[in-house]
Amino acid sequence: MLDTWLTRELGISVPLLGAPMGGRAGGRLAGEVTRAGGLGLIGAARYNTAEWIEGEVRTAREIGGGAVGFGLMTWALADDDSLLTAVLEHRPQLVTLSFGDPAPYIERVHEAGAVVLSQINTVDDLRVVEAAGVDAVIAQGHEAGGHTGRIGTLPLLQEVLESTSLPVLAAGGIATGRGLAAVLAAGGQGALVGTALLASPETVGPDYARGRLVEAGSADTVYTDVFDKARHQPWPARWGGRALRNAFTEEWHGRGADEDTLAAAYTGDDPDIGVVYAGEAAGLVRSERPAGEVIRGIAEQAETLLSRFR
């Protein structure tokens, strides 16, 4: 039994959260992570509707037995926070408010009975979310898939652990029990995993994404903003996105092309052009495996490794 602040606070048996990957983590994936003993998070993106959220929550709870969490992009709430309102109507157990200052929203989330976590990429980010009143933080390293910062997971995790009394989780490059064991041995309270789940059949999105991830190695990713620009996604400049390399990144990454040029060249239906956000743990994903099997395998290996030191 891997007993940590995270398992005690949420009443779960495995100190793992399924990452709220926008466009990939819906109710089915979240439910299977929860059924396996962790807590699955649904990625609530700017384009999602209240009706979509209701349906995904229903699916997650039917599979996972009731508990569900959500992840939101804090910067996107500044102009319209109706997405947060829609999420809180379903009384989630946990909400992550990441990529921006969560202070305007913390009280509402706590009033809805949810635990609040924020992913952070620097110690400066830590100070912002501490002041806002989050319950715990997730040190998200540069290895992570999707949008992330520029400091590696291990240096960032150590620095954050040395800098706060809040519970600390880790994200970025954690795809096996060895990674989870390392986080727990360092003093972390759990991990958020995304890339490890991306080849699972429960993910949302194009079928080609799973196959491309299985074929990829850990050196086959690029940290870039070309996919955001091509799809007119207004992400703040400080957060690039880690994705699998493809013909589109080979052609356009680093060239400084404008959004209209990139948009004209982009199509998400083409496996050689469409974005597959994934982290440097891609080389550890060698087959399409059910999400529950992945979560249980990580937990079992971590427990075996850590038991050697008890």
UniProtKB/TrEMBL annotation:
Keywords (A to Z) from UniProt: Dioxygenase, Flavoprotein, FMN, Oxidoreductase
Domain of life, per lineage: Bacteria
InterPro entries per the UniProt record, alphabetical: Aldolase_TIM, NMO
Molecular-function annotations in GO: dioxygenase activity; nitronate monooxygenase activity
Protein name from the UniProt record: 2-nitropropane dioxygenase
